[in-house]
C-alpha cells in the first residue's frame, strides 16, 4: 500500500511537471506584434455653404465668417395667420460634384402653448413656386412640440454657377396668442 501511494505521488508530480512545462513552452512560443497606422489630416474648405437670400433683412439672418452657420433672429409668427419667409437664406453648391443634403432637428426650447407650426422647406430654387425638395415641420398641439424627424437625403447638383437652394420658413401662432418665443435649431447635413 505504501508503494502505491509513493508511485501515485510520483505520477502526480510527473503530470504536474509535464503540464507546467507545456504551459511554459506555449507561452514562450507566442509571438506578439502590432500594426501601425500613420495619418496626415488637412483642414478642408467646405464647398456647400449658406448665403443670404432676398428676405435676409426681414428674417434677421446673419452668417458666420465661413458661411457654415446662419442665425435668424427676427422671425415672427402671427396669430391665426401663416407667414412665409420665402428666401431668407440659401444653400449653394460651389463644388463641381453633386452632393446630398438633408434637414435634421437638433434642439427646441421655449414656449409650447402659443404656436401652431414652424416649417423649414428646402426648395429647388429661390422663388415661392420652386419645388420643395425636403420639409422639416414642427407642430405644436398646445402642450408639446413634435417634428417630422430627419428628412431623406436629396441631391444638390451644381448644374450651373447660379444654382441656389432656398430654405423657406413658414410660421403660424395660435388664435389670440400671447407674447411668446421659441428657439429652434436644425442641422443642414451635407455628404
Short note summarizing the structure:
The protein is an alpha+beta fold. The chain has 2 domains: 1-33; 48-190. The chain has helices at 2-29, 56-59; strands spanning 48-52, 61-63, 70-72, 83-93, 99-110, 115-123, 132-140, 145-147, 154-156, 164-173, 182-190.
Strand order of the largest sheet: 1-4-10-6-7-8
| Structure class | alpha+beta
The Cα radius of gyration reads 33 Å
**Order of secondary-structure elements:** HEHEEEEEEEEEE
Put simply, the count of helices is 2
Distance between the termini: 83 Å
Could you tell me the mean pLDDT?
89
Q: Runs with pLDDT <50, length 5+?
A: none
Give the biggest sheet. 6 strands, antiparallel
Shape: elongated
Count the strands? 11
**Helix fraction?**
10-25%
Share of residues in strands: 35-45%
Identify the quaternary structure here. single chain
Number of domains: 2
Structure report:
The chain has helices at residues 2-29, 56-59; strands at 48-52, 61-63, 70-72, 83-93, 99-110, 115-123, 132-140, 145-147, 154-156, 164-173, 182-190. With 191 residues, the protein is an alpha+beta fold. The strands form three sheets. It has a six-stranded antiparallel β-sheet with strand order 1-4-10-6-7-8. The protein has a three-stranded antiparallel β-sheet with strand order 9-5-11, with no helix packed on it. A hairpin with a 4-residue loop joins strand 7 (132-140) and strand 8. It is elongated, with a radius of gyration of 33 Å. It starts with a helix and ends with a strand. The mean pLDDT is 89.
Amino acid at each position: 500500500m505504501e508503494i502505491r501511494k509513493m508511485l501515485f505521488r510520483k505520477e502526480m508530480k510527473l503530470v504536474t511537471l509535464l503540464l507546467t512545462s507545456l504551459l511554459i513552452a506555449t507561452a514562450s512560443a507566442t509571438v506578439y506584434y502590432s500594426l501601425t497606422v500613420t495619418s496626415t489630416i488637412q483642414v478642408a474648405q467646405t464647398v456647400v455653404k449658406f448665403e443670404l437670400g432676398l428676405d435676409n433683412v426681414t428674417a434677421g439672418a446673419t452668417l458666420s465668417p465661413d458661411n457654415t452657420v446662419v442665425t435668424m433672429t427676427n422671425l415672427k409668427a402671427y396669430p391665426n395667420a401663416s407667414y412665409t419667409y420665402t428666401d431668407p437664406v440659401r444653400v449653394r453648391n460651389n463644388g463641381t460634384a453633386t452632393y446630398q443634403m438633408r434637414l435634421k432637428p437638433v434642439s427646441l426650447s421655449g414656449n409650447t402653448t402659443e404656436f401652431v407650426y414652424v416649417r423649414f422647406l428646402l426648395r429647388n430654387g429661390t422663388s415661392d413656386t420652386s419645388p420643395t425638395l425636403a420639409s422639416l415641420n414642427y407642430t405644436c398641439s398646445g402642450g408639446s412640440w413634435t417634428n417630422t424627424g430627419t428628412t431623406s437625403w436629396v441631391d444638390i447638383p451644381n448644374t450651373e454657377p447660379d444654382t441656389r437652394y432656398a430654405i423657406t420658413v413658414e410660421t403660424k401662432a395660435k388664435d389670440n396668442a400671447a407674447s411668446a418665443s421659441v428657439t429652434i435649431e436644425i442641422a443642414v447635413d451635407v455628404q
